[in-house]
Amino acid sequence: MKKPVRMRDVAEAVGVSPMTVSRAFKPGGAVDDETRAKVLSAANRLGYVFDSTASTLRSQRTGFVAVTIPSLNNANFADTFRTLNDSLETAGLQILLGSTDYRVKTEEKLVDQLLRRRPEAIVLTGSHHSERTREMITRADIPVIEIWDQPEHPLGHVIGFSNADAIRPVVRHLAETGRKKLGFVGASDTADFRGRARRLGVLDEAARLGLPTPALISAGPAPVSMVHGARAVADNIADIRKLDALICVSDQVAFGAMSECARQGMHVPGDLAVTGFGAFEIASVSSPTITTVDVQSSEIGSLTGTFLVDLLQGRTDPSPLRCRIRTSLRLGNSS
Amino acid sequence: MKKPVRMRDVAEAVGVSPMTVSRAFKPGGAVDDETRAKVLSAANRLGYVFDSTASTLRSQRTGFVAVTIPSLNNANFADTFRTLNDSLETAGLQILLGSTDYRVKTEEKLVDQLLRRRPEAIVLTGSHHSERTREMITRADIPVIEIWDQPEHPLGHVIGFSNADAIRPVVRHLAETGRKKLGFVGASDTADFRGRARRLGVLDEAARLGLPTPALISAGPAPVSMVHGARAVADNIADIRKLDALICVSDQVAFGAMSECARQGMHVPGDLAVTGFGAFEIASVSSPTITTVDVQSSEIGSLTGTFLVDLLQGRTDPSPLRCRIRTSLRLGNSS
DNA sequence: ACAGGTCGTGTTATCGATACCATAAACAGT
DNA sequence: ACTGTTTATGGTATCGATAACACGACCTGT
Prior knowledge:
The first copy, chain A, has 14 helices and twelve strands. In chain A, strands 2-1-3-4-5-11 form a six-stranded parallel sheet, sandwiched between helices. In chain A, strands 7-6-8-9 form a four-stranded parallel sheet, sandwiched between helices. Chain A has helices spanning 7-14, 18-25, 33-46, 52-59, 75-90, 104-116, 131-140, 163-176, 193-208, 226-235, 237-241, 251-263, 281-285, 297-312; strands spanning 64-69, 94-99, 121-125, 144-147, 157-160, 182-186, 215-218, 245-248, 273-275, 292-294, 322-324, 328-330. In chain A, helix 10 (226-235) packs across helix 12 (251-263). The radius of gyration of chain A is 25 Å and the shape is elongated. Chain A is of the alpha/beta class. Chain A has three domains: 7-50, 434 Repressor (Amino-terminal Domain) (Orthogonal Bundle); 64-161 and 298-325, Response regulator (Rossmann fold, 3-Layer(aba) Sandwich), CATH 3.40.50.2300; 163-294, 3-Layer(aba) Sandwich (Rossmann fold), CATH 3.40.50. Chains A and B meet through helix 4, helix 5, strand 2, helix 6 and helix 7 of A and helix 4, helix 5, strand 2, helix 6 and helix 7 of B. The first copy, chain A, binds a DNA duplex (30 and 30 nucleotides) through residues 6-8, 16-23, 26, 30-32, 35, 50-60.
């Protein structure tokens, strides 16, 4: 239980001032090469570990970026988060992650907690926030990026796509291939705003094309995944036999639905077309492969990361960015 | 660009000392209820945001827990991380997450970075670390937990299972059902230590049971997932036709393998049994369902979380814990 | 030779909260 | 009445690094 080594101790050991040690630890610090080498070797010998907390307080730069995502077990956001993390960590930034559990109230508490850490920027998944959340973030006066959506009233920067528009090509594709009686499988509640937007997109596009109103089939409360897709089909099999296409809110749900269809003796795509959303691995590996919408989740993460790094280093115009991620229909054998 | 509100400003507004404001913000702070209410309302009115950085420096408590995992897109660790995060955040602890990319050198750099933030504890996935990593962590003098493994020489606490032992029942099950010519599909390199341990477990158990040495089929470098399982089967189809069981390093690989088998006209389990590992959603939703090993990934996370919270609050004996997570064979229709 | 520049280093004050101790008031027990 | 205890609050020093400024040594060009 000896007391921890501080910068001062290293300085004394080398015979320089703490300031010189400080500079030796900064990548761009103006120190003589020889001095730096001596400092670093002494630091290593003494077991000195740089204290970011003190540095942060004095310099007012935390190196933190706060990130909120709806759910950690939703594979949808894993890719985005991973690529975002990769971009940021090379710039020496550390993510503070929190999950909102699809609730604006939870998001509010989370944002309050995160802001106490003085992040240099904040990334929010989605665009629906409580009034207080908006206020806290505005007052924090740091860059904000909303991702995975196209908000009407953005808080700051936007890197995402319209979930409603992204799914329209699916409806058109189904209509073009002669499918008329559509169904939509998604979460029952309205907590998953992106899922809800997709549902609205489906309904609207079907109306525009003069198709009958799609049947809405609930897969239970968000987040929904494979088992929920399977259960939704099992629970509504009679209705589903009357349809000729099932539009699912995600590839996971689509896969679950397809697998239950197989169990029920329905042939995909012969008896029923099934589509997903998100272009996840499962879509290209399942049989049949799933018709889906590629939203480039990795792209969202890496774009956000590089943009943020440029912004924080002052290399980028800080005026609000609205970046629309290009989404595309990817045909599989399920439709 | 007005200057930020500090505790002192709130104190002045209410007419108390900063110390009282400080206490009003602590859950257990001894302040008059009325005073606290006045302080909090003033804080809210002025837009004061508590500054954890300063608090941390003075009190020497950061509220951080450092966590390293091999890969963020490996679904294996998502459940563990999610439940761990849930337990910790209710206790007001914030995770600092880093991914090691399955490399000890990357882990070393990561640990160095994370320790600078002065975490109150560190959680490492796996048990293979560089000498320098071990040294840094030992010197940091904070609780360490190694998860997802059973290290021979633990750094501190252990919450995990033996990957080699966990997969033995799979081999026994296959032997009992008359399968003799086994194959193992996993990552080619030795970077994924847990995958390697499973392979060794398969080889050893096969030898004990007097079975011929299982064929080793590479699915490429770690991390491996569905597409790699499918490709491994496609690339080695001639060899695989001679086998009667395929033991895969994970459910994802097993699913990919099964789907390629279907494409190749091989029937599972008729022509070939296929098994996975991890008991992920895909195992119970795919058809056929996959025989797998349930390792309770969620359990690992929540156990680690509650243990850590108890430890940091001094409610638990700090002597090294070695917790063996019970694993179990879960039969599916794929074998 | 000298003004003006760069480079490496030291001195001092400070970032914003809180540990530690002191104090005053209220109240109980003998 | 006096001591001891509890509760609510304030004053001061401090956590460990660094921004800002100062300074001397060494260039470099005219």
